[in-house]
Amino acid sequence: MAAALSFFLLFFFTAPVISWRPWPDSPRNATADLFDGSKKYEGSSEFVKMKYHMGPVLTGNITVYPIWYGAWRNSQKRIIREFISSISAAGSRPPSVASWWRTVQQYTDQTGANISRSVRIGAEKSDRFYAHGKTLTRLSVQSVIKSAVSAATRPLPVNPRGGVYLLLTSDDVYVQDFCNNVCGFHYFTFPSIVGYTLPYAWVGNSAKLCPGICAYPFSVPKYIPNLKAVKSPNGDVGVDGMISVIAHEIAEVATNPLVNAWYAGGDPVFPVEIADLCEGIYGTGGGGSYTGQMMNDGQGATYNMNGIRRRFLVQWVWNHLVSYCTGPNALDH
C-alpha cells in the first residue's frame, strides 16, 4: 500500500520537464528592444540563477537509444541519426554542432567532473505497428520504453548511468499535451512501470499536427498571414523542426537527468533548465520573438550549425559561467 501511495504521489505531483515553443507572434518585451544589438544580450539576465542541486549528471560516455514509434522513412531517420552523431564530431566545419555541445560540457557534478564530450548512437528499436496506439499519455510513453528494453528479440540495453532513451513519434501519433506549446519533454522512468530508473526524452514529429508551433520557423501559423516560413536545411519540415527539440532535450537530460541537478528556480516540479532559458534563440540578437541572425546556404535553406555532412538549425543553450545564452554561430561586434 505504501509503495502504491508513493507512486501515486510521484505521478500526480511531478511532471516531465517540457520543451515549450513560444508563440511566434508573442510581443517583444522592452528589454529585448533595448539590448537587441548586443552579442551578450541573447537571453542574458542578472536575475537568472542557474544552480546545481547536487544530483548526478551524465559525466560518462553518453549513448542515445532511439525508439522509432510509428511510420518513419529511412530518409528521416538518417537526418536524426546524423545530428546525434554530429554532437561528438569535432572535425565538423564551424560553426558546428560539436562546438554547441561544448557549452553543455561546462556543467559539472559535485566532484567537478564535466558532462561527457562523447555522445553516440546505440542500439535502436522500431515499432511500426503502433503497439500502444496512436494516442499516448505520459505514462504510456514509459510503457513504450518498457517494451523496447524488455522485447523478446533484440531488447535495448539497460544503461541507467549513461543511456538516454529517445522516443521519437511519427507525424500521425499524438502524445499528451503535444502542440499545446509542448514539443518534447524529458524525465526518468518509474521502476514500477519499466523496472528501472532510466533517463528518457520524447520528441514528436509535428508535420501534420502543429508545424507552426513545433517546426517554427520552417512553418508558421496560418493565422499570421504576413509571417513567412524559412526553408528547412534537409528538406523535411517536420524532422528539421524536431532537431532543435532533440538537442534541447539531450542537453537537459545530460545536465539534469533525474531532475535534481542543474536548473534555475526553487521548484523542482517545474524547473527552468539550460535549454528552456534560450528557447527560440538561434543566433546573435535573439530574444523576445526574434530568432536571431541565422545563415542561408546556396539553395536558400536556413541553418546555424554544421554537422558531419548536413546542416541544422539548433537553439542556443544557457552558459552558467557568463549568464547568457551562447552558440557557436555568435557574431562579433
TrEMBL record:
GO terms under cellular component: apoplast
Keyword annotations of the record: Apoplast, Secreted, Signal
Keyword check for Cell inner membrane: no
Signal peptide per UniProt: 1-19
Pfam families linked: Phi_1
Subcellular location: Secreted, Extracellular space, Apoplast
Protein family per UniProt: Belongs to the EXORDIUM family.
PANTHER family the record matches: PROTEIN EXORDIUM-LIKE 3 (PTHR31279:SF7), PROTEIN EXORDIUM-LIKE 5 (PTHR31279)
Designated name of the protein: Protein EXORDIUM-like 3
Source species of the chain: Salvia divinorum
